From TrEMBL:
Catalytic activity: an N-terminal (5-L-glutamyl)-[peptide] + an alpha-amino acid = 5-L-glutamyl amino acid + an N-terminal L-alpha-aminoacyl-[peptide]; glutathione + H2O = L-cysteinylglycine + L-glutamate; an S-substituted glutathione + H2O = an S-substituted L-cysteinylglycine + L-glutamate
Organism, as annotated: Oceanobacillus bengalensis
Protein name: Glutathione hydrolase proenzyme
Gene encoding the protein: ggt
GO molecular function, one term: glutathione hydrolase activity
Keywords for this protein: Acyltransferase, Glutathione biosynthesis, Hydrolase, Transferase, Zymogen
A biological process term (GO) from this entry: glutathione biosynthetic process
Catalytic site positions: 356 (nucleophile)
NCBIfam families named in the record: g_glut_trans
EC assignment: 2.3.2.2, 3.4.19.13
Complex formation: This enzyme consists of two polypeptide chains, which are synthesized in precursor form from a single polypeptide.
Record InterPro entries: GGT-like_enzyme, GGT_peptidase, GGT_ssub_C, Ntn_hydrolases_N
Amino acids binding L-glutamate: 439
Known pathway: Sulfur metabolism; glutathione metabolism
Amino acid sequence: MNLSNKLHNPYSISRQPIYAKNGMVATSQPLAAQAGLDILKKGGNAIDAAIATAACLTVVEPTSNGIGGDAFALVWTKGKLHGLNASGRAPKSLSIEVLKEKGYEEIPTHGWVPVTVPGAPGAWAELSRRFGKLPLTEVLQPAITYAREGYPVSRVLGKFWKSAYRKYKATLTDPVFENWFHTFAPKGRAPEVGEVWSSEDHAKTLQEIAETNAESFYRGELAEKIALFSRQTGGYITADDLAAFKADWVDPIHVNYRGYDVWEIPPNGQGIIALEALNILKGFDFPAKESVDTYHKQIEAIKLAFVDAQKHVTEDKHMRYSVEEILSESYADERRSLITEEAILPKEGEPAMSGTVYLATADNEGNMVSFIQSNYMGFGSGVVVPGTGIALQNRGHNFSIDPGHVNALAGGKRTYHTIIPGFLTKDDKAVGPFGVMGGFMQPQGHVQVVMNTVDFGLHPQAALDAPRWQWMKDKTVEVEDRFEHHIAQQLAERGHDINIQIEPNGFGRGQIIWRDAESGVLVGGSESRTDGSVAAW
């Protein structure tokens, strides 16, 4: 990829890509990006920087992730790409029968029912063990310092924090949620933009994780606190559930898209949606980006891939069809043939028999990391373990309580997961990490970012700044207000139900770092829809 030719950004005059040679960190909070860069300057590598940034984000962006969340990573090192699945499992005592006996018709969004075992601390420890250079105590120190000494709340963070507080104040009235308010609203309100917030509980927990390489979280004092609070307040997670956790190294999956290999984590992640959509789209030509035909085909391909995932994707060992079957060329041809000039109501196919916060880092040794972690739905379940700052995720909400569904709830099972890191290579060389966080927007963001880069030659910042669309359901598509309105009208004429959104909050937040294959120069872009930045040297 020739970086020097990709200078034009037709979508923004306020931000340009960042170039550097020695190292780079891109994420949604400047303080976290700088923390990762500081670790690079202290002799750490891109893996150490990713861990430092991720841990810091649990403090400086608690509205999107936390110590009690999950994580996935793609790590490029020594010419090879490695995948890490650090998503947790449902408590063994939880089952569809148990929930139905208690009157549940679906899995709620808050409380103990949707809580699964957190994987983020295990991800940090495992990445450090296998690829890190610095001790975890040093790598987590920036996060510990920010938690203990505090930091001023940034603009977008403050907006989401206040929104969550108002919602929780009205809806989370059970005593089990009291610790959320003690931790995240200690003054009886959300912190204001520019106000300094700190949490000694977060600091102590992060210190404990650092000193024990996360063993305390799964088999020590922190695990005991989580299990005790669960037992005291009607939860399902136990010490045995925590002790059984293991972050798994997995083989990333990919498709070749116009000479580039696009990589994702295999199911239970939803990255397969982006790959299936790209597999469908590569059978078309796209001479222009700002064209009704381009957007129409992108939307139709995403629809088809999404309904397939909703029908077929869960933890890999429970899937009826393999990744290879879903990403086969013959199945892509079959799904592509369904795309016409008119918007369709998508239906899942049947393959032939034979599947949040984001950050990117790079260093001058050639290492690159694509990392994502999340509590889901903002702060997660609303359950915070007393005295720890651990806000537990609500990933279990994605389980189905239909026993016949592929993603049916079962004790010890991983659910269909929304968070996905992406990576791009060409001719077996790293181009770099990319990602777009934001629930079910994520694979749609991946497709748009990849096509902006590969098909339309946009540099990282322009690829991120470009107006986005999001398929919601049936024929409903939301587009940003900056989206060309005449194209939105033409899409409506093709049968799409187009809703123009003034607020950009629902369209994801992305980061990109590319490396020039010849010079080794790094170029990065950071999401203009949030407080993000690229830290580099």
